[in-house]
Amino acid sequence: MTERRGGVILWIGYAIAFLICDFFYTLIFGRFPLLGSVPNFLPVGIALAAVMEGSVAGSIFGLCAGLFACLAPGGAGAGMIFLGALLGMLTGFAADRKPKKLLGACLLGVFVSLLVTELIRAGWMLYSGTGSFGIICRLAGMELAYSLILALPAYPLFRFVHQKLGTY
């Protein structure tokens, strides 16, 4: 019973950390676009949790975060549920083979997660004819860089949750 309670508390901690970071990303940094791009926290939060906990737990967390993004006002489409689960699974699987919980491993996972998200978004925008190739690539690159820079303050929060609540 103690293990189950500890696991529930751990995932509640990750959810609270995700909501805190998402609040700052959307309501503070989202209001200050950097060269026309705003940060995207969803792949960052999924990657951080997946690197800390592994592929299966990262996939479930990604599914829940994708559902949150789908249901949030002005949020992403239903494809984000599948993409969140896929990002969590792939990032966690890659982190299973490397030293976990280190800043470098987390940033690499965040970078790959953001890159996959931006490639899918840019491909969709090119397919639908929303913009030109140059503009889409510039915006995707700036959004990737902006989100990666803002992942640095999110890492200690997720690391704190893993260290304090992960030992159950």
Structure description:
By secondary structure, this protein is mainly α. It contains 6 helices and no strands. The protein has helices at 2-28, 42-53, 55-71, 79-96, 103-128, 133-165. The longest helix is centred in the C-terminal third of the chain and has 33 residues, at 133-165.
Largest sheet: none
Percent of residues in helices: over 70%
Query: What is the subunit organization of this protein?
Result: single chain
Encode the helix/strand succession as letters: HHHHHH
Summarize the structure.
The protein is mostly helical. It has six helices and no strands.
Outline the fold blueprint.
Layout: H1 2-28, H2 42-53, H3 55-71, H4 79-96, H5 103-128, H6 133-165
Helix pairs in contact: 1-6, 2-3, 2-4, 2-5, 2-6, 3-4, 4-5, 5-6
Key terms:
about 170 residues, mainly alpha
